[in-house]
User: Fold this.
Amino acid sequence: MSKNVVLGVTGGIACYKSCELVSRLKKSGYGVDVIMTKNACQFVQPLTFETLSARPVVYDMFDRNHPWEVEHISLAKKADIFVIAPATANVIGKIANGIADDMLTTTVMATKAKVLLAPAMNTNMYENPVLQENIAKLKKLGYLFVEPAEGRLACGDVGKGKMAEPAEIADKIKEILQENQDFSGKKMLITAGGTSQPIDGVRCISNYSSGKMGCAIARNAAERGACVTLVLGNHTCDIPDGVNMVSVKTTEEMFDAVKSHCPSSDIFIMSAAPSDYKPAKISANKIKDIKINLELEKTVDIAEYVGKNKSKNQLLVIFAAETENLTENAVGKMQKKKADMVVANDVTKDGAGFNIDTNIVTIITREDKIDYPKMSKTDLAKIILDKVRSIE
Assistant:
């Protein structure tokens, strides 16, 4: 049975691109229902979308020229995914604040499908803090976005605000609607990024972790149907859409966040790099001595806590960043922390380790050990989750 896309088209010049999007989706075998705002009808006639989708276009909340049904409810239920392209600042603001005053926003309010927005607007509008606050609010609520591109806009300005190309939006839709929703119904707790342990009022102990690996896993897990809680420390990467993000700074804060979610999680993926040590004493003021002697003590071992306290039905995946004796150290770590799987990498290798977009890993379970070549962290995330699924 083919998937159904409900496409909302709002009043921006980019709505002409939505015609190509409908065409691409139809050629890929999806059913497409189009809802247009009245302003969108000023740019593209409904007949164009009706011809491309082979279905009637809805644009009038009170249209009576069709068989009776509660239209916004029927379309809301019909959607396997709800897409708004282009998504203007106006419609983003309405959705973020619960305003449902036309057919499009009313249907979005009623749907339980994933909602994907493709913003398109003037650069200054896109950068406006009010708009960014609305986007951040929607992301936190689980709404998904296709980032706008940079370039010359219809108004003549140059900057970020161009709607993503139809091919990119179509690929994102296919990715979300992939048949393999193998983590549907699973609650996954993922840690990512580094932590900082304060030394004094201005200094801290930290590491080079970027959070890229953990965020890539969180993104793929959410796309595969998992309910993801991402406990995120220091990072230099984009936060994935569709996850419940908990921001932390110190190892203790990360531990508290993980501990609070332990009972309700099915799968734990500990990809963060929390600081192993912290100063025994913290100075409230900046230390100005010529020499600083720091006495360090171990921080709490988060993965070890999870391993000792998880039930037999919960699965723990840990990471091991090593500089020598990779397999030996990784296996020892897996056994000590009572983990079910370890993803080990030698951070001294070119193309592996912190703050880059690629990695080279060995995945070890109780049954086998597999070495993987250098690949993007996005591709590796899929492999890690495939392996998790196979041992779950």
About this structure: Residues 210 and 235 are 4 Å apart (CA to CA). DSSP finds 13 helices and 21 strands in the chain. The radius of gyration is 24 Å. The chain has a mean pLDDT of 91.
